[in-house]
Amino acid sequence: MPPRRAADPTMDDTVRLARPPRKSRAKPLLIGAAALLGLIILTIAGWLALRPAPYPLAGETTIFRHVSPHFTVFRFRDDPLILVVDCPDLHAQGLMFDRVAALIEKADAPKNRVLSEAAFHARLAAAKLTIGSYYYGDDYPAHALREFFRLAAAEHLALNPEETHLRAIAQRSGFLRPGANGAIISIPQAGPSHRVSLRARAVILRHELSHGAYFTIPAYHRYVHHFYNTVMTPQEQQAFQSFLVRQGYDPGYHGLIVNETLAYLIFTRDREFFRASAVGLPPATITTLRRKFVAHMPDIWLKPLATAPLPTER
Description:
The protein is an alpha/beta fold. The chain has one domain. 51% of the residues lie in helices and 7% in strands. It has helices spanning 26-50, 60-65, 90-104, 117-126, 142-154, 161-172, 198-216, 218-230, 234-246, 254-267, 276-279, 283-295, 302-305; strands spanning 57-58, 72-76, 82-87, 138-141, 183-188. The chain is globular and about 60 Å long. The N and C termini lie far apart (116 Å). The chain crosses the membrane at residues 29-50. This is DUF1570 domain-containing protein. Keywords: Membrane, Transmembrane, Transmembrane helix.
């Protein structure tokens, strides 16, 4: 054992342990946050990459002037909840929408099931109609499309390729989600072989856009019903209902009758499709009703179209 040293008052025998440097907690937190943010960004980027690009926005004139031999879908620029399906011709349009029309709007078709192809063709033959002459334009709110596809699935009913395409359009746009708001309208391409003139195409588009607004804008929906119920007389209401019933519309669907009444009265100012004599009312009555309706319309994108010239006239 080594000898002990004498105590040195200048020396301190206390053993001091050096405290290790404190590790900063901020750096790992920042690294973790950065990693989490990167993961979120990658997830969103992956989702966006897998999600189909939205349909292009277009206004009335652009849609009217569009020419294509294929189905083309636009979101209406002034109301993107309205999708416009530009169909190659009346026959293609009918293949996509006719059975929807039968379920939702036609008086002589069942309302609790979708007609089979055979049953639908039998009704066409009985009415002396064809797929291409059943309707010249179509318009359906999202909830009506959900009902059509729900019933078809419940009945294990096969959809034709065009109806399958329509379902994909509605699915991609979110219209098949419960409670989703939106509308799909359609117009046919113009041309001699399509039995649709350029002016007819413009008239159909204007008419169908008004239906789109009825489905997607609650204030306009309320105004249409208010005008029908409080401004139009019972005789005027009956005149329009009789006109619509002659075209096969279901008189038991009150909203349909109201919607079509105002679409014809205000937004179908073409003698080929609508005139005062068609409803048995004096032209002066039609003029007065139009003036009153436009004067108190909600200030929405549709209001200028009530009096604006058609795209063919610009």
